[in-house]
């Protein structure tokens, strides 16, 4: 009964015969991929799409939102050591299922700060236009809003902590299970399909949440009451939280079948009969009976040049990619002037088809290479160099706007047909409601900054303002001045497609060939050890560093008594900073992979029947018998 249970689908007494067909690789692959899709949607999709809205909603800086994104990686890192320690002692598939349950709960938790933060506010109506009398508003010490702002941030971090803890088994045990349950020849293909699912998830989140961000996100207020007439208004707050709640609920259901999978599938022995041994000679060791097995394995990995060069390359790549994943929609808003919703839709529209096609092609190429390490590394290096070239798309941007008080000082106002003192007597609150003087193409931070008079016929939130001292014809219109850059948008999208293709096509090739470097018994240790480096030195600082770079390039901070929010960035400096960072990472990664290939030496162990037999030494007798039949 014990041996039969090892490959039976179900739990405890519930193991119906009708469900035993699920104890095979294809059903497992489908269910695992659906969970990867949801995890990708939550972590790499919804967080990125919602980051601008979260900053506006809770008045966070980009550095703080970077910390919010990095919290996920912090708690993934915390879980990596116990995952490596107990990899051979637990049912890895059930661990993945339990983790995805926690991911679902963590995703749903984001509704709590949205509720406790109270109604969304953009400022006071009285300072929307020029007021010439009365003192400016003063801040009172010990404002209760300050505690509230920190409370909401802590609640957001708590949500990310749950997601990080729960998602940690998915891309450690999940990858090794794909390699463990199916032939090594198909590992590249399986990883490609797995990565396609994890790519489709963020893409669907980008597209779906892009539409949700066009809907007003605070059920307690009305945008019209605050003078906000649509999603194009930079103060508009979309329904950012709905995607987290929906994905969280679905994750609770998709995770449940994983809790019923056995430790080993029925068709594993048949699928792995012809596996080929390609382990690096210095890593082909067995410490199964050693007292300090875990520490021996880690020390062996640390001493191996090939292993460490691959890990270091993936670490700096993780720093770059986590920064991109978190802030690429925000970068599109800054470079090309898109709204949050449109930036998300365009990003998702590129990532979906390109990610699917490139990952599939990468999986097929990995199969052609037959997991041979050196050809795989040279392939990855080539496309890494191409990606570095395509990253020049970050230098494409719309023409910079002329914004009074940001990059146009008072002394330059006469060039635009206005007096230097046109709004000198106006007491303007830090209220952001940009308006445009169309004749001079000059943007102002608010009607007040444009010197627009507070007349009875003008209501808060109007589309046009009259009696504006800083405008030639005294009329200004709502929103930024138009920056026509249709040509630049098309150029950016074409090069962004090429950049995405070069990134996605290498992932299955690199991952599948890297798994062959280590002994099959050390797959979990290698994967967890690699992720430990990637999180601590890559993903965690990546989001924070990119957030800091964005904050440093802020040209106008809207400040109040509690916090500050950047409303306008230096697009040129921001594009150059991201471009230089990308070039440095790609070139350094290429050098590391070349070094890894140079020091790699394949083990001289024979492949075929003898080596294949060692791949499943812990298998049950029934699986061994089926294996022997295949060999004969």
Automatic annotation (TrEMBL):
<feature type="transmembrane region" description="Helical">
    <location>
        <begin position="345"/>
        <end position="366"/>
    </location>
</feature>
<feature type="transmembrane region" description="Helical">
    <location>
        <begin position="191"/>
        <end position="217"/>
    </location>
</feature>
<keyword id="KW-1003">Cell membrane</keyword>
<feature type="transmembrane region" description="Helical">
    <location>
        <begin position="489"/>
        <end position="510"/>
    </location>
</feature>
<dbReference type="InterPro" id="IPR004156">
    <property type="entry name" value="OATP"/>
</dbReference>
<dbReference type="GO" id="GO:0006811">
    <property type="term" value="P:monoatomic ion transport"/>
</dbReference>
<keyword id="KW-0812">Transmembrane</keyword>
<dbReference type="GO" id="GO:0015347">
    <property type="term" value="F:sodium-independent organic anion transmembrane transporter activity"/>
</dbReference>
<feature type="transmembrane region" description="Helical">
    <location>
        <begin position="67"/>
        <end position="88"/>
    </location>
</feature>
<feature type="transmembrane region" description="Helical">
    <location>
        <begin position="531"/>
        <end position="550"/>
    </location>
</feature>
<feature type="domain" description="Kazal-like">
    <location>
        <begin position="416"/>
        <end position="483"/>
    </location>
</feature>
<feature type="transmembrane region" description="Helical">
    <location>
        <begin position="237"/>
        <end position="261"/>
    </location>
</feature>
<feature type="transmembrane region" description="Helical">
    <location>
        <begin position="95"/>
        <end position="112"/>
    </location>
</feature>
<feature type="transmembrane region" description="Helical">
    <location>
        <begin position="378"/>
        <end position="397"/>
    </location>
</feature>
<dbReference type="InterPro" id="IPR002350">
    <property type="entry name" value="Kazal_dom"/>
</dbReference>
<feature type="transmembrane region" description="Helical">
    <location>
        <begin position="306"/>
        <end position="325"/>
    </location>
</feature>
<protein>
    <recommendedName>
        <fullName>Solute carrier organic anion transporter family member</fullName>
    </recommendedName>
</protein>
<dbReference type="Pfam" id="PF03137">
    <property type="entry name" value="OATP"/>
</dbReference>
<keyword id="KW-1015">Disulfide bond</keyword>
<keyword id="KW-1133">Transmembrane helix</keyword>
<comment type="similarity">
    <text>Belongs to the organo anion transporter (TC 2.A.60) family.</text>
</comment>
<feature type="transmembrane region" description="Helical">
    <location>
        <begin position="21"/>
        <end position="47"/>
    </location>
</feature>
<keyword id="KW-0406">Ion transport</keyword>
<dbReference type="GO" id="GO:0043252">
    <property type="term" value="P:sodium-independent organic anion transport"/>
</dbReference>
<feature type="transmembrane region" description="Helical">
    <location>
        <begin position="153"/>
        <end position="179"/>
    </location>
</feature>
<dbReference type="GO" id="GO:0016323">
    <property type="term" value="C:basolateral plasma membrane"/>
</dbReference>
<dbReference type="InterPro" id="IPR036259">
    <property type="entry name" value="MFS_trans_sf"/>
</dbReference>
<keyword id="KW-0813">Transport</keyword>
<keyword id="KW-0472">Membrane</keyword>
<feature type="transmembrane region" description="Helical">
    <location>
        <begin position="576"/>
        <end position="600"/>
    </location>
</feature>
């Amino acid at each position: 009964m014990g041996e039969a249970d090892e490959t039976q689908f179900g739990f405890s007494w519930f193991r119906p015969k009708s469900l035993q067909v699920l104890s095979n690789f294809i059903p497992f692959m489908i269910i695992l991929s659906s969970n990867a899709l949801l995890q990708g949607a939550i972590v790499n999709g919804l967080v990125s799409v919602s980051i601008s809205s979260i900053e506006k909603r809770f008045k966070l800086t980009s550095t703080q939102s970077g910390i919010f994104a990095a919290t996920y990686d912090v708690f993934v890192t915390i879980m990596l050591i116990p995952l490596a320690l107990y990899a051979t002692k637990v049912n890895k598939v059930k661990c993945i299922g339990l983790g995805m349950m926690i991911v679902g709960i963590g995703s749903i938790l984001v509704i709590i700060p949205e509720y406790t933060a109270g109604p969304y506010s953009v400022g006071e109506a009285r300072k929307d236009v020029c007021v010439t009398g009365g003192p400016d508003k003063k801040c009172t010490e010990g404002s209760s809003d300050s505690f509230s702002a920190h409370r909401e941030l802590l609640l957001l971090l708590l949500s990310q902590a749950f997601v990080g803890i729960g998602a940690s088994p998915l891309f450690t045990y999940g990858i090794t299970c794909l390699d463990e349950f199916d032939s090594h020849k198909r590992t590249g293909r399986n990883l490609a399909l797995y990565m396609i699912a994890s790519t489709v998830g963020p893409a669907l989140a980008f597209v779906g949440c892009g539409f949700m961000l066009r809907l007003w996100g605070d059920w307690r207020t009305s945008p019209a009451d605050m003078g906000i007439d649509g999603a194009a208004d930079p103060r508009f707050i979309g329904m950012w939280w709905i995607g987290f709640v929906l994905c969280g609920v679905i994750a609770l259901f998709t995770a449940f079948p994983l809790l019923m999978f056995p430790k080993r599938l029925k068709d594993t022995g048949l699928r792995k009969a012809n596996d080929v041994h390609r382990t690096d000679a210095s890593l082909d060791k067995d410490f199964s009976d050693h007292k300090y097995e875990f520490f021996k394995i880690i020390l062996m990995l640390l001493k191996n040049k090939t292993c460490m060069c691959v890990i270091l390359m993936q670490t700096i790549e993780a720093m770059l990619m986590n920064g991109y994943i978190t802030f690429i929609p925000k970068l599109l808003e800054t470079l090309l002037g898109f709204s949050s919703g449109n930036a998300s839709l365009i990003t998702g529209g590129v990532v979906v088809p390109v990610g699917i096609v490139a990952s599939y092609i990468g999986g097929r190429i990995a199969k052609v290479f037959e997991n041979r390490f050196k050809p795989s590394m040279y392939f990855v290096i080539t496309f890494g160099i191409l990606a570095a070239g395509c990253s020049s798309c970050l230098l494409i941007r719309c023409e910079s706007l002329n914004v009074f008080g940001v990059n146009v000082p008072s002394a330059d106002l006469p060039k635009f047909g206005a007096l230097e003192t046109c709004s000198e007597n106006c007491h303007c609150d830090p209220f952001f409601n940009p308006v445009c003087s169309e004749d001079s193409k000059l943007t102002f931070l608010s009607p007040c900054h444009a010197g627009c008079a507070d007349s009875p016929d003008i209501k808060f939130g109007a589309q046009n303002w009259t009696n504006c001292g800083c405008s030639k014809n005294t009329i200004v219109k709502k929103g930024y001045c138009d920056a026509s850059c249709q040509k630049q948008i098309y150029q950016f999208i074409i090069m962004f497609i090429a950049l995405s293709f070069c990134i996605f096509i290498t992932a299955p090739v690199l991952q599948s060939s890297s798994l062959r470097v280590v002994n099959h018994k050390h797959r979990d240790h290698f994967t967890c050890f690699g992720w430990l480096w990637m999180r601590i030195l890559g993903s965690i600082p990546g989001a924070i560093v990119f957030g800091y770079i964005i904050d440093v390039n802020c040209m106008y901070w809207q400040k109040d008594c509690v916090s500050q929010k950047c409303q306008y960035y230096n697009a040129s400096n921001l594009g150059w900073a991201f471009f230089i960072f990308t070039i440095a990472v790609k070139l350094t990664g290429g050098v590391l992979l070349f070094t890894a290939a140079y020091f790699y030496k394949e083990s001289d162990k024979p492949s075929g029947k003898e080596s294949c037999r060692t791949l499943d030494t812990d298998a049950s007798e029934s699986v061994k018998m089926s294996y022997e039949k295949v060999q004969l």
